[in-house]
Amino acid sequence: MTIIDGKKLSEQIKTELAREVAAIRDSGGKVPHLAAVLVGEDPASQVYVRNKVRSCEEAGFKSTLVRKDVGITEVELLEVVNHLNDDDDIDGFIVQLPLPKHINEEHITLAIDPKKDVDGFHPVNFGRMALGLPTYLPATPFGIVTMLERYGVETAGKHAVVIGRSNIVGTPMAILLSRKGRVGDCTVTLVHSRTRNLPEFVRQADIIVAAIGKPEFVTADMVKEGAVVIDVGINRVDDPAAPRGFRLVGDVAYGEVAPKCSFITPVPGGVGPMTVMSLLMNTLKASKKEIYGA
Ligand code: L34
Q: What pLDDT does 109 receive?
């Protein structure tokens, strides 16, 4: 059993990015600049955005954090987005999700200039992903693909079962794994809350991607011997003995599942840090105008 160390791999990629950015800067080029918009005080979102800003600093990127009160209106947030679209120094930006209930996330996503949409959430970028055209891959699926690639996990012809159909993880992950390519060529089953006999499908998987947001949902009886298990869940479970009053638990019952796996990602230190690093990789692509040209 091999633990896929997302923390270590993300540090390695950060070093590679830092080297490239230093070379760009030294030859008089533009240092990549990422902006992140954070609305409200959601504790998990604050941690994630802080990790993004810190990683930018460590890789030598410029970063701008735009913080807005939870009471901001949709119109005001759209103005923030337009401002970032028009700011020539900013190569790419994200609006951290989830947004407060009174703001329609789709309206915000649609307002982001696809050239600056380093989250890859805009329908133009999502469509390009689905067609296999150059694009900004959504950060979490991009991070997962990178882990499978760098750990030499063979995917061609394998049966992948993706659990969860969210726009930002499950749906794009199922598409990417089904496409032609080094990390692809899988037969994919996408299971979700309305699937009948879900465990029966999961038991057939060579590769499991768990992205449902339910602590320890995937148990050992659902996992075939030798399976590759990618755990996307980051659930906070109350734990009075823990320093922060909670501990992080994945969507996979790690303790009982790990011994059956060929590869498994831990939580924390698995997919999460790779999500952050993928965003930086997309931002570098944006600053080099790799996807959309000048
Ligand atoms: N717009 N919203 C937008 N883009 C994204 O790509 C995200 N996502 C998801 C939530 N909303 C978003 C993230 O940034 C999830 N996500 C994310 C980012 C970082 C981490 C986890 C999820 C992360 O750094 N995880 C660490 C530690 C977590 C902790 O201490 O709480 C880990 O080791 O898993």
A: 98
Report how far ligand 1's centroid is from the alpha carbon of 27 (Å).
33
Q: Is residue 7 part of a domain?
A: no
CA 222 vs CA 77, 209, 212, 252, 268: distances in Å: 43, 13, 15, 10, 22
The overall average pLDDT reported for the chain is 98
Condensed to tens digits (0 to 9), the pLDDT of residues 53-95 reads 999 999 999 999 999 999 999 999 999 999 999 999 999 999 9
Q: What percent of the chain has pLDDT over 90?
A: 100
Which residue's structure tokens are 């032609």?
Answer: 180
| Nearest CA residue ID for atom 16, ligand 1 | 48
Task: Give every strand in the sheet of 228-231, ordered side by side.
Answer: 2-3, 263-264, 228-231, 207-210, 159-163, 187-191
d(C-alpha 276, C-alpha 286), whole Å: 16
Are residue 259 and residue 147 in the same domain, yes or no?
A: yes
pLDDT for 294 equals 82
Quick one: 148 and 249 in the same domain? yes
- We report the CATH number of the domain holding residue 70 as 3.40.50.10860
Residues 93, 162 within the same domain? no
Q: What pLDDT is stored for residue 56 in this prediction?
A: 98
The structure's pTM equals 0.97
pLDDT in tens, 25-62: 999 999 999 999 999 999 999 999 999 999 999 999 99
Choosing from 52, 62, 115, 285, the catalytic residue is 52
Distance 51 CA to ligand 1 centre (A): 8
Q: Does residue 4 form part of some domain?
A: no
Kindly give the interhelix angle for 139-150 and 271-287, rounded to the nearest 10 degrees: 110
Where in the sequence is the domain holding 179, given as residue range(s)? 139-272
| The total number of structural domains that make up the chain | 2
